[in-house]
Amino acid sequence: xxxxxxxxxxxxxxxxxxxxxxxxxxxxxxxxxxxxxxxxxxxxxxxxxxxxxxxxxxxxxxxxxxxxxxxxxxxxxxxxxxxxxxxxxxxxxxxxxxxxxxxxxxxxxxxxxxxxxxxxxxxxxxxxxxxxxxxxxxxxxxxxxxxxxxxxxxxxxxxxxxxxxxxxxxxxxxxxxxxxxxxxxxxxxxxxxxxxxxxxxxxxxxxxxxxxxxxxxxxxxxxxxxxxxxxxxxxxxxxxxxxxxxxxxxxxxxxxxxxxxxxxxxxxxxxxxxxxxxxxxxxxxxxxxxxxxxxxxxxxxxxxxxxxxxxxxxxxxxxxxxxxxxxxxxxxxxxxxxxxxxxxxxxxxxxxxxxxxxxxxxxxxxxxxxxxxxxxxxxxxxxxxxxxxxxxxxxxxxxxxxxxxxxxxxxxxxxxxxxxxxxxxxxxxxxxxxxxxxxxxxxxxxxxxxxxxxxxxxxxxxxxxxxxxx
Length: 470
Prior knowledge:
Blueprint: H1 4-7, H2 47-75, H3 97-108, E1 128-134, E2 141-146, E3 152-157, E4 161-166, E5 172-177, E6 183-188, E7 194-199, E8 203-208, E9 229-230, E10 236-241, E11 247-252, E12 257-261, E13 266-271, E14 278-283, E15 289-294, E16 298-303, E17 309-314, E18 321-326, E19 333-337, E20 341-346, E21 351-356, E22 368-373, E23 376-382, E24 388-392, E25 398-402, E26 409-415, E27 418-423, E28 428-433, H4 436-439, H5 441-457
Antiparallel strand pairs: 1-28, 2-3, 3-4, 4-5, 6-7, 7-8, 8-9, 10-11, 11-12, 12-13, 14-15, 15-16, 16-17, 18-19, 19-20, 20-21, 22-23, 23-24, 24-25, 26-27, 27-28
Helix pairs in contact: 2-3
Organism: Hypocrea atroviridis (strain ATCC 20476 / IMI 206040)
WD repeats: 134-175, 176-217, 229-270, 271-312, 314-355, 378-401
Protein name: WDR5-like beta-propeller domain-containing protein
């Protein structure tokens, strides 16, 4: 990826690529629990589907219970009542045992009715509409991230600043100043209280969101501002926090991946990861694995505790990889390539399961993510033509194309019904998902009203009643 200063130029140079003879390691291993079907990264079935499954089980159980009850009664002799009036359970002498058992089975264990199958519901399609345009950066915005709690937006820019915005109103909350060169990347801790930023000045700074100042140390000299994390020999390109927030992973143009102890503010481990700049990095959902990618065309999966490389993934065409992220359950890796393709890898088997196309990505390191909206998963990606494209994860269908920025759209992040993008035009754009019922609410009500009036005053006026569907 070009540095943030280079991103502001009119015609930035393309990536330098060189092929490599690295192939996937056959002797490497990874946890078997992470292997699975390529559709398993979707959320669990909804409650209504689980209830439908339970209803089927209850039908089978009632059948088995009724059959066993009938079998037991048929084997037990029935005594007649001494009174002249027969008991309901007594067997008339004129009836045979077979007919008696059959009638008893019919009277005491009726056949349960089969539940009507629920027709499959069509998947919810995202419908994001532009709501806010945030301005304040003097140069291109290289990355934008929504906090885990969905309340804040952090933006990194080539103007060497980081800005924090209110996600609901778009109000500017703070400007973090301290870097000596353009800022390429930002990352939130899981509690949304700490923000990390990586810059072309080769330093990583940790910020307290509440105070807008550098984070203070937790040991020895408590209350003292933490010094920037230094150790990389070139531009900082990508950052990611572990799910617990105690480890920070960083990728740099020096081709290395660093793992930092956030509380102590020290380097834990250095991984000589690639032979080209590290373009993307991410933690899996449980923090045990780290994935990195590079313009050398390689994707590598690392063990967080040991630093061992568990997998090396490389496509046969060896396209440069500009960004990478884990699926929500950690079983798959989504890779953004500079051949206009996004590939979903099963890193255990080392094979590509899905390929998403429809956007433009040939020169810049653009970013995207997995997103979940009302239980449905989709893939979101920026595009060099300024748009944002959303795909269905399973069938690879383009669900929505959102017009975004003038120039390159560098990054898109989604948190539920909120989507945020960053662009070369220096702006940040906020989108909200508008449900179909909200968008056409007035038209639906009018249609129902007109239909009911037609039924009431029409030819069938004298017959039945009119029911308005909900």
